[in-house]
Every structure is written in C-alpha cells, then in structure tokens.
Specification:
CATH topology: Peptide Deformylase
Number of helices: 2
Shape: globular
Strand order of the largest sheet: 1-2-3-6-7
Catalytic activity: N-terminal N-formyl-L-methionyl-[peptide] + H2O = N-terminal L-methionyl-[peptide] + formate
Order of helices and strands: HEEEEEEEHE
Structural class: alpha+beta
Cofactor: Fe(2+)
CATH class: Alpha Beta
CATH superfamily: Peptide deformylase
Number of domains: 1
Distance between the termini: 20 Å
Function: Removes the formyl group from the N-terminal Met of newly synthesized proteins. Requires at least a dipeptide for an efficient rate of reaction. N-terminal L-methionine is a prerequisite for activity but the enzyme has broad specificity at other positions.
Strand content: 25-35%
Helix content: 10-25%
Family: Belongs to the polypeptide deformylase family.
Keywords: Hydrolase, Iron, Metal-binding, Protein biosynthesis
Number of strands: 8
Length: about 160
Amino acid sequence: MAVKQIVMYPDPVLETPCAEVTVFDKKLAKLLNDMYDTMIEFDGVGLAAPQIGISKRIAVVDIDDDMGTLELINPKLLEVNGSQVGPEGCLSFPGLFGDVERPLSIKVEAQNRKGKKYIIEAEEYLARAILHEMDHLDGVLFTSKVIRYLEEDELEGVEAND
C-alpha cells in the first residue's frame, strides 16, 4: 500500500466531474487500498479519488463505526430524507471548517471493488461523510455549501469530514 499526496485547492481536478469506473481489476483494488491508507495517514473520515489527482468516481469513507470502511464506486443517490446542519472540513482545504446543511438520511447505490452493486442506507454523520465524498465526484466542493465558517475554538471535540 502507498500513501498518496493530497491535491489541494485550487487544483482544477477538484472541480471536474469524474468519469465512471468501468474496469474492476487489481489496479482498482490497489487504488482503493492506497486511498484508505492515505485517508488514515491524513486523519480523514473520507477520501475521493480526485483528492489524489484521479478523476474517477471512487471514494472511501470510514467514520470509525460498526459499518467499517465503505468503498463507493460509481455511487448514485437514490433517496434523501430530513435535514441536518453540522461542521465539515476537507483534506484539500487544511484548517478550513464550516457548517453545511445536508439530508439527515440517505440511500445510495454503489459498486464494490469487484463491480457488484449494493445499497447502503446511512444517517446523520455517516450520511454527511458519504455525501461530502459524492460531491467531490461531481466536482462540487464543500466550500460552495458552507452556511457559516467556523473558528478553530468552535471545533473542540467536534468531528469534521474528510
């Protein structure tokens, strides 16, 4: 496994919609493993492929709960319910945090590393993390959704996203 360099804003890859994944092979499996290692190394809860310079619809999310690591390939949002506002940050914007409004619960269809489709239902923090990463795949940055930027002293004990 290898830790990759995080792409920082304003690199254009971060605002470019990503291509669908069509080949599910060992190269993809290695990329997913590298993305996980990179996310952990930089203390994130999610990482999208464009954040390491790869414009493909791939993301990993792990909020350290009983769901474990989620590998989201070609994810599609099927359903949203409710609303929540909470703090988010991004590995591509170090030190920047803001409150973002997102759905409270979601249903997403994605593929795993072997190409098999599956459905995940998530709520609250996990839903927020998944949607943050899915936005990256569409070239949408959390900064475009911030309601209010947060000062560092407002972040004590608060979990932020990738």
